[in-house]
Amino acid sequence: MDDIVPGGHGFVGSGGLGTQLNGHKSAAMGPQAFRGASERILTAINTVIDGKAEAAKLALTVLLAQGHLLVEDVPGVGKTLLAKTLARTIDCSVSRIQFTPDLLPSDVTGVSIYNQSSRQFEFRPGAVFANIVIGDEINRASAKTQSALLECMEEHQVTVDGHSYGLAEPFMVVATQNPIEMEGTYPLPEAQRDRFMARISMGYPDKDSEIEMLETHQATSPLAHVTSVVTSADVAAMIATVQQVYVSQSVKEYTVAVGRATRDSAMLRLGASPRSMLQLLRAAKATAALDGRDFVLPDDVVAVAESVLAHRIILDRKAAGTGETPQSVIRSVLAKLPVSQEMADSARAPRHAEAAELRPSR
Q1: CA-based nearest residue to 311, from 202, 196, 146
Q2: How many angstroms separate the Cα of 348 from the Cα of each of 39, 249, 335, 352?
Q3: CB 337 within 8 A of CB 291
Q4: Whole-prediction pTM value?
């Protein structure tokens, strides 16, 4: 039996970003329901992934912000396990694609097959037709196959033989890759990397978490005991709640300032794209909602900036030679753009500073 049950194939998506489920717009959740659902998801993930609470929260943030997640690190630190656990916490369709050099674009998107009896071509959907798509070792497939995901990730649809098919909502791609091993791999092009809202580097667990892993993971994997704690309708409602989070003009200006600072940096050959600014703000809105607020603070932008921007920028050769990393450059940019108290106050003002929790929609 497969460790993940593949989902069905329903062409029910809106063909773009939205919170529609089966063609119906989802209503936002109240604050208590939102908090309860998010806590159940995070608790389920943390029971499987030891000592990686921040990675679990970021994965949920990307899901609620309608983004896609790239999990990049050395082998054996739980990249695929994180993706599979997140998928299992939600009662929705899930598919897993093992990217290999012989994988074809049609294996991902689907193919039209001629039916002899009806004398017509029929579309057979590929593995991408699911709510959560796990792409394991994505950089082992050719650039041609990788590019099959571009339309799916950006527009939430697949076009085959001139016909477009919407993907089911919510839709999220969680891809893993090993950045150390270069033999037999195809580096992700910049256009592909820019489609991922955030990148997570798992890192090694601390000593106590590693000892606990040895005690609990020997006989059976904790993943075997994970069951869904929310439905796809719950996730759609949570996404609708995130979309209602207020963003002040000062926070928008701060977000743009961060992006433009990366483009003006002498340490970078390529700065953050306009798409990354939009995704940075969406991730900040999800962060605010998970923290129990219905407005975004500049600190929310700072909290996710490194994860959202570091994989999109390219270092200048001189900067790389001096030991700089994309992460250190982002931290340097943020340090030069401090958040003033006035900016924080203006972000709170339209939503009343005393409102510390999300208010239910009416």
Answers
A1: 196
A2: 25, 11, 22, 6
A3: no
A4: 0.85
State how far the Cα of 182 lies from the Cα of 177, in Å rounded to an integer: 11
The tokens for 189 are: 């092009």
User: How many residues appear in the chain?
Assistant: 362
The one-character DSSP state at 225 is G
- The C-alpha atoms of residue 160 and residue 207 are separated, in whole angstroms, by 50
CA distance 310 to 285: 19
| pLDDT tens digits along 64-104 | 999 999 998 888 778 888 899 999 999 988 999 999 999 99
Q: Could you say which residues of the chain have pLDDT below 70?
A: 1-24, 349-362
pLDDT score recorded for residue 4: 41
The sign of the CA dihedral 330, 287, 188, 274 is: negative
Q: Is 222 helix (H, G, I), strand (E, B) or coil?
A: helix
Token pair listed for 32: 């208590």
Distance CA 124, CA 148 (A): 15
Burial letters for 186-216: b for 16+ Cβ neighbours within 10 Å, e otherwise?
bebeeebbbbbbbbbbbeebeeeeeeebeee
Measured over the CA atoms of residue 279, residue 48, residue 152 and residue 330, the dihedral's sign is: positive
pLDDT for 350 equals 56
Of 169, 308, 191, give the one whose Cα is nearest residue 239: 169
The DSSP string of 57-94 is HHHHHHHHTT--EEEE-STTSSHHHHHHHHHHTEES-E
